[in-house]
Structures are given as structure tokens and as C-alpha cells.
Specification:
Rossmann fold, seven-stranded parallel sheet, 9 helices, binds acetoacetyl-coenzyme A, binds 1,4-dihydronicotinamide adenine dinucleotide
């Protein structure tokens, strides 16, 4: 079992990549907190894990709200006793061309994708430091590395996440904490369901493996990076994009 007896928080764990990650972690032996804004989908995700032999609880959280995040961290410690792994997966898009992007679209995406990652990590880190061990995994994107049409706000956050990852790897490494990011390509989920078919077709065509990604492709990468098999890996950004950019 890759994650036997580990305690993990997966933000945005109600749907898509986060849900699959929570499921995979639980089946690898971890006790998992499905931490999400969406109560109904989050409770269902936790229930599905528990009925398939895993252990999970749902905690409702809005990652943009520091009091909310602090309450989630406290409840996790109370119910699981520790926090070994934090997956900062919660994220949103609000796409528009540069000239059409509103301030509200900019603020919303920065709030969830960047401030949310800061909030969760800053409030979980003291526990990991006290434990002398921990793993933080962040959701970047090919868009954060290479940019994308219509994604000024999102690209800024996903590049920002790379900066956070590298800074935290340097700050927290000597405390026994590893910090890495994944940079997925276009993965089939609710998020990409909003992308025009024409764009998805372009992305598929450009992908060396000639397919869009599945949520499992990313969840399996998180599983590896969370496990002791990755014990000498920190500060890295691992592309999970089927060769979209080679
Ligand atoms: N790559 C290449 N070309 C793109 C593109 C992309 N990602 N997105 C848009 N374009 C092109 C359009 O095809 C269009 O070209 P033509 O003028 O030749 O037809 C041009 O840019 C303008 O686009 P629209 O006419 O659609 O402009 P709009 O103002 O109506 O809409 C938009 C703009 C909201 C950005 C819309 O184009 C859109 O949704 N594009 C997709 C953006 C995208 O790729 N989002 C990814 C979301 S998933 C995600 O973010 C996960 C991840 O990490 C990968
Ligand atoms: P999704 O839209 O399917 O799921 C996102 C989850 O995050 C939802 O359950 C949602 O309720 C939750 N969430 C949103 N805002 C929240 C908030 N403020 N607080 C708590 N939870 C919140 O998205 P998907 O596709 O599973 O993506 C997950 C992560 O992976 C995101 O960070 C995304 O940017 C990133 N990513 C996704 C790619 C893709 O192609 N789908 C590619 C590269 C990165």
C-alpha cells in the first residue's frame, strides 16, 4: 500500500481530478479528507470512497476564506490526528480574451487558484513542521508553463503556483516537507467541458499520444509524488500532458 496510514487532504475533492485523487489515495491506504465547496458532490465522493473499502470524510471549505480553511485544518487534526499530505487541487477557470476580461473574472480566479493555495499551505504547514514530515502537491497546468489564448487570469495563477512550489520546496525542505507541482495538459472533466470543441480538437491534435488526458492520469501522478517512492523529489513541476509540448 503506497500510502498506508497516511492522512491526506484533497481540496476540490468533490469532482474531476480531485475526486479521482481522493479515491486513489484512499485505496492506497490513506484516510482522506474530501475538502470542497460543493457539499452535495463532496459528501457523495466521500460516501463512494467509504462504500468501496476506503476511508474518507467530507469537510466543506471555501479555500478563498482563511477562517474556513483554518476550521477545516482544525477539524482534520481532530478527526484524523495528523496531516501527512495536502493536495492543493481546487481550481477554477473564467476564460476571456485579454481585452474582454473583467476585473471580477481576474479576481475570482486569482482568489481560488492562487490565494487558495497560499491559504491552505500556510495553515497546514505548522502541523507538518511539528511532525517533521509532510508532502504538499500543487495543481499547476501546461497553461502555467506555456500560456494559452483566453486565459490571462488562469495562466497567471498556474505560473504563480510554480513559483510558490519552488519557494516552499526551498523553505520547507529542511523541515522534512517535500513540495511539488503537476502541470497537466487538457484532461477530460467539468472544467474542460466548457472549452469549445474546436479548441479541444486542436489540443488533441498537438498531443503526442493523440488523446486528451483522463483524471486517472493526473491522480496516479499525485499518488506517486505523495508516496515514499518520490522521497528525493522536491521543487519539481511534473508535466502530465501526453506530450502536448515536447
Ligand atoms: N488555442 C488556440 N486558439 C484559440 C484558443 C486556444 N486555446 N482559444 C480560442 N482560440 C481562438 C478561437 O478559435 C478564435 O479563432 P478564430 O478567430 O480564428 O475563429 C479566436 O481565438 C477567438 O476566440 P473566440 O471567437 O471564441 O472569442 P470569444 O471572445 O468568443 O471567446 C474564449 C474567447 C472565452 C477565450 C473562448 O475562445 C474559449 O473558451 N477558448 C478556450 C480557452 C481555453 O483553452 N481554456 C482552457 C480551459 S481548461 C483549463 O484551463 C485546464 C487546463 O489547465 C488546461
Ligand atoms: P473541476 O472543475 O472538475 O473540479 C474542481 C473542484 O474544485 C470542484 O469540485 C469544485 O467544487 C472545487 N472548488 C472550486 N472552487 C473551490 C473553492 N473556492 N473552495 C473549495 N473547492 C473549490 O476541475 P478539474 O478539471 O478536476 O481540475 C482540478 C485542478 O486541476 C484545478 O486546479 C485545475 O486548474 C487543474 N488542472 C486541470 C486541467 C484539466 O484539463 N481539467 C489541466 C491542468 C490543471
Amino acid at each position: 500500500m503506497f500510502l498506508k496510514d497516511k492522512a491526506a487532504i484533497v481540496t476540490g475533492g468533490a469532482r474531476g481530478i480531485g475526486r479521482e485523487t481522493a479515491l486513489l489515495f484512499a485505496h492506497a491506504g490513506a484516510r482522506v479528507v474530501v475538502a470542497d465547496f460543493d457539499k452535495e458532490a463532496g459528501e457523495k465522493a466521500a460516501r463512494d470512497i467509504n462504500t468501496t473499502g476506503g476511508q474518507a470524510i467530507f469537510i466543506q471549505v471555501d479555500v478563498t476564506d482563511r477562517d474556513n480553511v483554518l476550521a477545516m485544518v482544525e477539524e482534520t487534526k481532530e478527526r484524523l490526528g495528523k496531516i501527512d499530505i495536502l493536495v492543493n487541487n481546487a481550481g477554477i477557470t473564467a476564460d476571456a480574451m485579454l481585452l474582454k476580461m473583467t476585473e471580477a473574472q481576474w479576481d475570482r480566479v486569482i482568489g481560488v487558484n492562487l490565494k487558495g493555495v497560499f491559504n491552505c499551505t500556510q495553515l497546514v504547514a505548522p502541523t507538518m513542521i511539528e511532525q517533521g514530515a509532510g508532502v504538499v502537491l500543487n495543481a499547476s497546468s501546461v497553461v502555467g508553463v506555456y500560456g494559452n489564448v483566453g486565459q490571462t487570469n488562469y495562466a497567471a495563477t498556474k505560473s504563480g503556483v510554480i513559483g510558490l512550489t519552488k519557494s516552499w520546496a526551498k523553505e520547507l525542505g529542511r523541515k522534512g516537507i517535500r513540495v511539488n507541482a503537476v502541470a497537466p495538459g487538457f484532461i477530460i472533466s467539468d472544467m474542460t467541458a466548457k472549452v469549445p470543441d474546436k479548441v479541444l480538437e486542436i489540443m488533441k491534435e498537438k498531443t503526442a499520444l493523440n488523446r486528451l488526458g483522463e483524471v486517472q492520469d493526473v491522480a496516479q501522478t499525485y499518488l506517486f509524488l505523495a508516496s515514499d517512492y518520490a522521497s528525493y523529489i522536491t521543487g519539481q513541476v511534473l508535466g502530465v500532458d501526453g506530450g502536448l509540448v515536447v
